[in-house]
Amino acid sequence: MDGHDPLPELPPFPAELRGQRGALFLPLLLDPETGPETCLVLFEPDLTWRRFLADADLGLDLAAGVARLEHGAVAYFAWSLWLDEADPLAPYANDDRESPRYLTAFLGLLDPHLAATAELLATVGAQERLPVILLDSRQGQALELLAFENDYGLAELGAAFAAEVAGSPPGAFALAAEEFRQRYPLPELVGSEMEEEEEEETDDEGDEEESARDPFADDAAPDPDPF
Question: What is the pLDDT of residues 118-165, one digit of tens each?
């Protein structure tokens, strides 16, 4: 994490997102010398874990991909905030992911069929940094502005997602997005990224354990358990 910046002025928070948890991209002018930047807004109604922000070294991870569903395809972005393992506060963080460093996670969904999605991700991916706004979705109020090194490969993801769905019908994105939320719990999306990292480390050490099956493969069986 590069650091904390002064809070910007935000447009009114959408009424339909009040009290919800999620992630979205928002273009803002944070610094006149830098010019407009696209920020990642992470919003939820309960930000009690903010007590870790004052003196903590935070990291931001991304697990992303395309899921094909009955009503169409969605591009998913599961963002997770975590504490550096060496941070003395780490053992007291939320342990939902069976890791002392995990704090919380947020899900953003975009339509991979839209040219605007690839254009948005290309714009964000070209930035040197990724500004991140933590927002209280009950009050619609920005609480923290952070900045991270922009090494998430968002431009490449946008191009790959567009290529993956090229030639297929767009479907009904709103219905597909709701189906995705019901079928794939956010902790599992975030956890799958951790499992992949652990498998890579195990492979480097010579362990030949079989890797976990990708739940978003075309031949994957549906998850019978809703959220």
Answer: 999 999 999 999 999 999 999 998 988 999 999 999 999 999 999 999
pTM above 0.85, yes or no: no
Element holding 203 (H helix, E strand): helix 186-204
CA distance 34 to 8: 14
Q: What distances in angstroms separate CA 31 from CA 8, 38, 74, 169, one per listed residue?
A: 9, 12, 33, 41
Contact 78, 107 (CB under 8 A): yes
Which two three-digit tokens encode residue 84?
């550096």
Query: What does the block give as tokens for 50?
Result: 């903010």
Task: Report the C-alpha gap between 13 and 7 in whole angstroms.
Answer: 15
Distance of CA 36 to the CA centre of its chain: 21
- Contact 147/130 with Cβ under 8 angstroms? yes
Instruction: For residue 192, report the phi and psi dihedrals to the nearest 5 degrees.
Output: -65, -35
Element (H, E) at 31: strand 22-31
